[in-house]
Amino acid sequence: MQLMVTYLYLMAFFSQSIGDYWSERRSLVSNENAQMLGSNVELNKKERIVNEYLMNLKFSEFDEGFDTPSNFLPSRHFFQARRSIEKSPVFKFIRDMPKGGALHGHSSALLSFEGLYNITREKNLHACSFNDKLRLKFMLTPAQDPLCKWQLVHDLRKANKSYDNWLRSQLTLDSDNPRGTYRDINQVWSTFSKIFATVKSMITYRPVFEQYVYQALKELNDDRVMYAEIRGSFPALYELNGTVYTRTESAAILHGAVAAFQRDHVNFYGARYIYAPHRKVNNSVAKYYVDTVNELHNLYPNFILGFDLVGQEDKGDPLFKFIEILQSISKNVSLVFHAAETNWYGTSSDFNLFDAVLLGTKRIGHGFGLTKHPHLMRLIKEKNIAIEVCPISNQVLMLVQDLRNHPAAFLIGRGFPIVVSYDDPTFWSSKGLSYDFYMMFMGIASRNADLKLLKKLAENSLTYSLLPEREKAAVIKQWNKMWNEFIDLAYRNILNYGKIWH
Amino acid sequence: MQLMVTYLYLMAFFSQSIGDYWSERRSLVSNENAQMLGSNVELNKKERIVNEYLMNLKFSEFDEGFDTPSNFLPSRHFFQARRSIEKSPVFKFIRDMPKGGALHGHSSALLSFEGLYNITREKNLHACSFNDKLRLKFMLTPAQDPLCKWQLVHDLRKANKSYDNWLRSQLTLDSDNPRGTYRDINQVWSTFSKIFATVKSMITYRPVFEQYVYQALKELNDDRVMYAEIRGSFPALYELNGTVYTRTESAAILHGAVAAFQRDHVNFYGARYIYAPHRKVNNSVAKYYVDTVNELHNLYPNFILGFDLVGQEDKGDPLFKFIEILQSISKNVSLVFHAAETNWYGTSSDFNLFDAVLLGTKRIGHGFGLTKHPHLMRLIKEKNIAIEVCPISNQVLMLVQDLRNHPAAFLIGRGFPIVVSYDDPTFWSSKGLSYDFYMMFMGIASRNADLKLLKKLAENSLTYSLLPEREKAAVIKQWNKMWNEFIDLAYRNILNYGKIWH
Lengths: 502, 502
Known about the structure:
Largest sheet of chain A: 5 strands, parallel
Oligomer: homodimer
CATH architecture of the domain at 81-111 and 205-483 in chain A: Alpha-Beta Barrel
Structural class of chain A: alpha/beta
Number of helices of chain A: 19
Strand content of chain A: 5-15%
Largest interface: A-B, 60 and 60 residues
CATH topology of the domain at 81-111 and 205-483 in chain A: TIM Barrel
């Protein structure tokens, strides 16, 4: 009897101790999960059904990667993975999902690569190559240029079968083309900047520009993105007759192109502009930037909303060089600085984070180095500054190879306000936000991150827009409606057909 | 006059606002720096001079990388960078620096590759290959084996000039050899495990084993490491006459080999053992492990101090499978679990972190996924659990390519107790701790991290050892003496010669 009691006592003790273990473990895990971005999103019944369906798709694809890591798409280079991503059911789900706004995209690289390439087929486009630099420009007759022989692209194409391939290779970083792989970040950036220069002279022909803007917004709209904030520096538009527009006139033309698109697409909320000239300049140019943005904002107070500086941070000038000048930007213009788009810890580019925050930035472009700075992270959370994460850009521009190592994972785990964006989709043959959302969901976030995260990311992209509060409420309301319609349809399809997005 | 007053007023306001900016910036940066690992180390006058010298070396090498990233050694694969690292003045400084203890190394891969390869020249070593697996074993006459033809390595070498190269290729992951590069983490781990099996049968011949242990400790001692905790599972040692020793006898032999080395090297504090068998087992084997470590600890209470499970976590069994069994390990045996040596976020291997902490681990092996878990990070800091970081291992075993993206950067920025270790130096032709310290200092930590970090890392490697408190105090005292001697000599050399470590 004594023995039996001892045995029962021991069993009870043992079970309790084990029971404690598992309950403590559950509480640990749930504490952890409660901090994750999106954890406070409440899903309704339909959303829960859709989520369950989505997570089955995710687990199946994710776990296949866990078993055979070389097949896991976010670990591979986007140039090799793109076509497979397009076949992923999870990607198809994301493509159909209303994703809110595209807050980080540069005006010369917004369009899909094919969209841009189509422009090279327009008539009157001339080309010349000088010092290994391709220039493309619309003109009625070839300009007389002692350094460079201008020819019609149409004629070049006809005369040489390989011209098309070569021309393609000059307009993208994609290693399918002869440029191949890149030695390091400086080399890829140098090619990147060269392409920008080539494209700029082609897309600033006024009729093409209008069509380019229209097409770029259409691609977003088709990708179920309803709002855009475009970074650019208002390059001077031109006409075939030699007219060159002033910056103000160019702004008016852009504004008109956006309006034209909105007239045709009532579900698209609109686009706004962030004046974002190059960072490698002297003080007097910086001063000119500030005057320009203040003036442009006065002219278009509802359209030109923000200021930023662009170009490779490691090679450009750091923010701290321009503090006094930047402090004279009108308080009505929001600062949305690129900062720490770098993996050099403790350098001038890394320290751009400090100045961006001190200058009062509303969002941070990339902030790849942010997680190395715990004190700044705390400040950024307090100030509710959003981080614009562009996963594919960071991979192609060689900050990180395997996207599972992207530092945004730590920001997601800590519930930081993140928005997902596409940066320069043209140059890596991406299109819209879906590819970057896919990387975030499959590669960067936890296996367990679900529809709550996706919903939060979409919502964030409107919450952290530069729109005035009243407009923000309106756009979020509109997005919510689209979201509910999407969920309704998905829910019905799941119930009726069982299998969709396959 | 009014205008002048306004002007002066505005100037004063402007200067003050700018002054505020810079003082706020300084306070931000210093708050950030105060959290960095090593920031609380106080350098004395001599250390400050040495530090200044060291930082000149560091800045010069680091900034060259910033200008030409493809040359930056911690960004390149260790196999390509090793020879250049050996020429780095910073590396030479680190090599001369007393580095404390090596807390994470596996017994079959402790030696430099050349050290191991020398063993293949010992007489009586036989080889046979079966199913693409090489086996090496010492025997007087070739065993009769229907599946595999045993031959003397000496004869094979003589008969075939390319045999040496081939044999080398079977004992290392280094891509200088025909194995080339690896498709993914599973492939590199599979080769890695295969090499372990090949090496094991060679080094368990008792006289070779004794010499192997002696040599492994000598290499540490030469690298100015004074203490080691070795993970292993006491493979059964054997004699040429067919004797096979029991686990207990093998433990005694190992213990003796360590003692022999200590007798000859008074500056070397000693080595301790962590019983660390393979994790992919069923419950009854796990039970046997626990009995074994409890028994071995009873026999060698001052030598066998810890328990761990090894092998690829993604492919092995997770800790949570063995909770009840592991809870019966003697409280006198410290747990030092591998956990989250993975970049799969939210998976069973990632979740090993939760169980390691709940089981009461004293240190965490790798913890590569830790930074994705903010709640766990807080717990780990509260409980003062150290993280064993092995940078080169993580790169070669394909968790991260560019070491600037290693998550330990975030742990350093947050002052987590880190120790640097070498894991399996043989298989990537590393030697001692200097290479891993170099990666930590140059590649993972901030450009501004200095001698304070190095000193802290060395000290941590003793503070977080499994030694009892009294011994710990003794070894730290001994290390302090060595450290001061190192600083004295460095200081004198800097004053007298100006240029050292070049």
